[in-house]
Amino acid sequence: MSLSHALLGLLAVQPRSGYELTKAFAADLGRYAWQAGHTSIYPELARLAERGHVTVTEEGARGSRTYSVTPEGYAELREWVLTPRRRGKVRNEEVLRMFLLSALEPADALVVLRRIVEHAAEEGTRLRKIMDDVPAAIPPGADGFGYLAAEFGARQFEAVHGWAQWAIGKLEAAEAESA
Amino acid sequence: MSLSHALLGLLAVQPRSGYELTKAFAADLGRYAWQAGHTSIYPELARLAERGHVTVTEEGARGSRTYSVTPEGYAELREWVLTPRRRGKVRNEEVLRMFLLSALEPADALVVLRRIVEHAAEEGTRLRKIMDDVPAAIPPGADGFGYLAAEFGARQFEAVHGWAQWAIGKLEAAEAESA
DNA sequence: GATGCACCTGTCGAACTCGACATGTCAATA
DNA sequence: TATTGACATGTCGAGTTCGACAGGTGCATC
Prior knowledge:
The structure is a homodimer.
Chain A: H1 2-13, E1 16-17, H2 18-26, H3 28-33, H4 38-51, E2 54-59, E3 65-69, H5 71-82, E4 90-92, H6 93-100, H7 106-133, H8 146-178
Antiparallel strand pairs in A: 1-3, 2-3
Chain A binds a DNA duplex through helix 2 and helix 4.
């Protein structure tokens, strides 16, 4: 399962509590790569601990438990990331919505595409700003996947932006032609 | 559920059988947007028919049934695509693997990143070739989402390609610095 | 001292997914 | 005519996900 590997990866970068892991999934990780709520995370942590892939290395206030990966857990993670795989799981509601546009009337599709262009531009500049504020010396991934993720997200939004503009151009040309 | 809307979208472009829908999900749609196997599709078609969002408009050889969207189904689809939504479902094993790279040793990460660069370049040119072969006159989506999807995929791969190269640069610079 | 809020962990049930299994058809090729 | 393979639809059970519900803590502010 991918969730277990996502948790191992997060913990390999830095030991965290279930609560902190939940926040990481709510941020960039959950935005581009893999979503999970705390209701999936806590039971999965328990399973990983049972398997010996993680251990509790600190107990803090309010019953919080900080988990770290064990050597076995790290080996499992490394193996999973390094092994090339056939097609993995894909599920993206945003992208699905983009594909479904071609099923609508061009006028409707244009409304949505213009919204996408606007939104992608906003998010792109937001992420670019984050990248600019990060001192170049920060090693990738030191604090979660912030740095790599921000750049990935920025490029992703730029690609979507370009695609939506291209699609608008195609639709407008098709409309002008049929008129 | 998104699966039902994906089916409505596919059928709105063109009536199809469950078998043909399954093939569409195995192609570009399932690659970038939403995966589904026939074991999800057939029961969902039955549910959509029950709700009156699709109907069987043709019965062919080998027990095949061709479904079409009803006006109610189309209205439901339109509403779903046009309504702006908070964050939708995201799940992408490939991207997750990219994020997890920063949890590995730089040497391991570089191996994977170089593989990504190569793969993204291949897929990008493959899709670009498809785009070039498509006569410009074909209206978007006439045969599934081929045209829009190919362009989207091509831009996606180009973005991943650029990102991976950037990441390699960062990692190599960091290694050189620490050496 | 009460109130609110972010912190922190958990269960349960309904819905959804997915691989394995099952069944039969039509056409081409050996 | 036997075999192969794409066509075509379906069920079942195990595993996964996710929203709703639940409950306790430490701190700051009123």
